[in-house]
């Protein structure tokens, strides 16, 4: 049986994601009640939100490729977490949210699953240098904290909104289970970030602050179209009414680490600037949509047509997920397991068991991860 190579600080992390794996396995879509009482009203109010969240969650396959690229020397703890605990959970979130999205009349998500930018490839090459190799993991942990905290806040708002619309089936069986899994991911990033930050030298900390200020972006917003879509999500969830409060929530741990020396700094300017830009782009793209609460032309322009190939769309997606489910108001029938799709796309050697889950290296048949200190 293979084991995880761990240092003295890693055992706590292993114990944490072991609990995540055992207590919060990927959500079975068959457990979700897709009953929607008023699909048109739900589409008008939250269609853009569900579509955005579905795309971002499904793009976890590309995120894994990106992490493999920028973290060439990632410790076993990180690699096992993002490949075999985080990714399967997030992909199921995307599958479920996409099914709800289709149920209310929106287009199915068209995520980018295969492209890795040149910028990230260069960062991966630099990651082999001893003086740089601690910086990319730190940026990964910071991005992870912000992303997961943003997700928690968004799902809280979405859950409350669905309850207000009397869409209790989707709220209780889809959104509630999804939001329960996000804090565990946040905790992993926070524990990792605090440990690594304490080990960085002064010049490394300075460079991390500068790189973070230059590279910060809302989750899933990689171009102006996606930034505008994110701005519409903030509008639909009423988060744009208090952007400073939202920013303070999602950036709190990062502020305490990176900017503790700046007494009185509540939110770094690069965070509020990015959020305001997204809201402004949404207003420019579809001002009538923001005022009236209708989809308008915005959503129609935000997703490629069905017959078009999205940028970077992988062969795996086209062949394996064109007909991923057949969904009615209360049933879900997957045609290919999450494990099979992910392993085929990434070329992994993991096996899939009878339930469609991956057999994880370093995990015994009882489900526990075994660890050993590096020799």
Question: What's the topology here?
Answer:
Elements: E1 4-5, H1 10-23, H2 39-58, H3 60-70, H4 76-103, H5 118-126, H6 135-164, H7 168-197, H8 202-215, H9 224-236, H10 243-258, H11 269-285, H12 287-292, H13 296-302, H14 315-320, E2 325-327, E3 332-334, H15 338-346, E4 371-372
Parallel strand pairs: 1-4
Antiparallel strand pairs: 2-3
Helix pairs in contact: 1-7, 2-4, 2-9, 3-4, 3-5, 4-7, 6-7, 6-8, 6-10, 9-11, 10-11
Radius of gyration, in Å, reads 20 Å
CATH topology: Ribonucleotide Reductase, subunit A
Report the strand count: 4
Please state the overall shape, judged from the principal axes of the Cα atoms.
globular
Helix content: 55-70%
CATH class division: Mainly Alpha
Query: What is the succession of H and E elements?
Result: EHHHHHHHHHHHHHHEEHE
Distance between the termini: 17 Å
Total number of domains: 1
- Strand residues, percent: under 5%
Counted by DSSP, the helix tally is 15
The strand line-up of the biggest sheet is 1-4
Level-2 CATH architecture: Orthogonal Bundle
The major sheet is characterized as: 2 strands, parallel
């Amino acid at each position: 049986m293979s084991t995880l190579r761990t240092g003295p600080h890693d055992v706590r992390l292993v114990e944490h994601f072991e609990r995540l794996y055992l207590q919060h396995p990927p959500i079975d879509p068959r457990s979700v009640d897709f009953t929607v009482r008023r699909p048109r009203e739900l589409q008008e109010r939250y269609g853009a939100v569900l579509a955005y969240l579905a795309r971002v969650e499904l793009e976890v396959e590309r995120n894994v490729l990106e992490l493999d690229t920028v973290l060439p020397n990632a410790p076993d703890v990180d690699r096992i977490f993002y490949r075999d605990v985080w990714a399967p959970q997030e992909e199921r979130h995307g599958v479920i949210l996409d099914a709800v999205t289709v149920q209310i009349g929106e287009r199915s998500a068209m995520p980018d699953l295969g492209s890795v930018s040149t910028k990230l490839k260069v960062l991966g090459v630099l990651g082999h240098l001893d003086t740089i190799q601690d910086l990319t993991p730190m940026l990964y942990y910071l991005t992870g904290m912000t992303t997961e905290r943003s997700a928690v806040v968004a799902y809280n708002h979405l859950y409350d909104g669905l309850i207000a619309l009397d869409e209790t089936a989707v709220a209780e069986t889809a959104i509630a289970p999804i939001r329960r899994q996000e804090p565990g991911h946040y905790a992993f990033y926070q524990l990792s970030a605090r440990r690594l930050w304490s080990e960085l030298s002064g010049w490394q900390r300075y460079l991390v602050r500068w790189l973070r200020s230059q590279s910060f972006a809302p989750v899933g917003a990689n171009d102006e179209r996606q930034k505008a879509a994110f701005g519409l999500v903030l509008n639909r969830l009423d988060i744009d009414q208090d952007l400073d409060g939202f920013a303070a929530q999602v950036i709190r741990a990062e502020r305490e680490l990176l900017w503790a020396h700046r007494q009185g700094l509540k939110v770094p300017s690069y965070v509020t600037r990015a959020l305001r830009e997204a809201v402004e782009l949404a207003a420019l793209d579809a001002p009538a949509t923001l005022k009236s609460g209708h989809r308008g032309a915005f959503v129609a322009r935000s997703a490629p047509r069905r017959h078009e190939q999205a940028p970077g769309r992988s062969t795996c997606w086209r062949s394996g997920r064109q007909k991923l489910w057949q969904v009615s108001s209360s049933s879900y029938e997957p045609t290919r397991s999450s494990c099979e799709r992910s392993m085929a796309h990434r070329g992994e050697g993991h096996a899939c068991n009878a339930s469609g889950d991956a057999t994880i290296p370093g995990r015994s048949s009882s489900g526990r991860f075994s660890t050993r200190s590096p020799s």
